[in-house]
Please model this.
Amino acid sequence: MPHLIIEYAASLGQDVDMQALTEAAFDGANATALFTPAAIKARAHPVEAYWTGGAKQPFVHINVKLLPGRTNEQKKALSESVFDHVTALLKTDVSLSVEVNDLDADVYTKRA
Model:
């Protein structure tokens, strides 16, 4: 845990190496030392239809899902680290956001 789920404007795939961006997000989570590298999962999904701020502005949104137990300070550090690692790969006109959400541990089920 965590899961880093990256949604991005499909058109960005022409200009941005999405594998490198996914790895950068992974590196941002790993840099916090809150998780072992084996526990971090990152994946990216293109979005064809979107509207951002009243225009078709390219975007990257990263939803970080993790089991509860981290402080707000740790979650803020995680959000900032992922943001900082990904920022270097994007032009300034790309909207970038990162959110951290706690999963409900009572209903989360997984297989390794």
User: Anything to note?
Assistant: The beta strands are 3-9, 41-47, 59-66, 95-102. The longest strand covers residues 59-66. The mean pLDDT is 95. The chain has one domain: 3-102.
